[in-house]
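Exam revision sheet. Question 4 asks you to relate a sequence to its structure. Input first:
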Amino acid sequence: METPVRIDSRFPNMGTTIFTVMSRLAAECGAVNLSQGFPDFQAEPALFDAVHRHMLAGRNQYAPMAGMPELRQAIVDKVAALYGVRYDVESEVTVTAGATQAIFTAIAAFVRPGDEVIVFEPVYDSYVPAIETVGGTAVYAQLTFPDYVPDWEQVARLITPKTRMIIVNSPHNPTGSLFSTVDREKLAKLISGTDIVVLSDEVYEHILFDGEQHASLCAHPELATRSIVVSSFGKTYHITGWKIGYVVGPAALMAEFRKVHQFNVFTVHTPSQLGLAEYMQDAGRHLRLAAFYQEKRDFFRQLLAATPFELLPCRGTYFQLARYDRISDLPDREFAEWMTREVGVAVIPVSVFYADGRDDRVVRFCFAKQESTLKAAAERLGKAFL
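Answer key, structure tokens:
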């Protein structure tokens, strides 16, 4: 249908997210989809049973704006057990409609027109559009290739009186790198005495490998007082389609967060919250996640070992980066499309995570898949490259 309305777009250069583009192309081509980050396996039936039970019990009306008390209490208890800090259940935790909503809401709550927000490239693709939507300006710090570690001297140079927020992400999507305890100390020192808010995207907090420990900002006394920390039930319990996450932070920051949250979402699906609160009582369900995904990571890396791909270190998340210099000279976006159409395996080009399209000839695989899916992808790669 055509419209007579003349549209002067606020975002003329903002396209469709690469995850939608590549998943659509994968479906059209019948490719094995290792692009978008979602599991192709189910959560435990116990979680579904718990939600169903609460539905049948009539718990189907609006939850409180901040989230069901049972779930908020379970979140507070989990964070205390893991990181040694106990947030106030009434004023310092909010249940959200996924992590993306949480991130957008936090940015909208604190970033005003003209403010600057420091982000680290390669940067997850929802951060910058959210910053620009509210009139802020993204300022880009670089994670140094190929280890993808922060350059804190560069960050220090980027901080100005206009800096309102710094966004950090660990374990890091798309690179699989980790924020260390040393990184936390350097960040804390840089912003001490300022009014800078930190937004910490920790949705992969339970997916770290080789004995690594998550350096949550919750566990740093100074950073915790100025941070909104985001996590995701979708990533933890294999239910990305439920779109349920949460944030924790000091009461004064949370009060501002909730001013926006109440009008862009208000509340989240009630029986799912109650089911999650019940399911969380077994801490092993999140504590076992690292071993579960390390087995998948190691299995996938072994499958790709014989191919010409150069696998970069993967210390966390369920993503594996790989250089393809020995395979092709194509730019990574063209290579990803060629892989999907001709090889039958869909991947994400890492250049899309850079403002200037920097292309290191690296693509991202998602290994949050059944072994049969990973084997099918490896067979296609083997036929193409061996």
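Marking note for examiners. The first strand starts at residue 32 and ends at 33.
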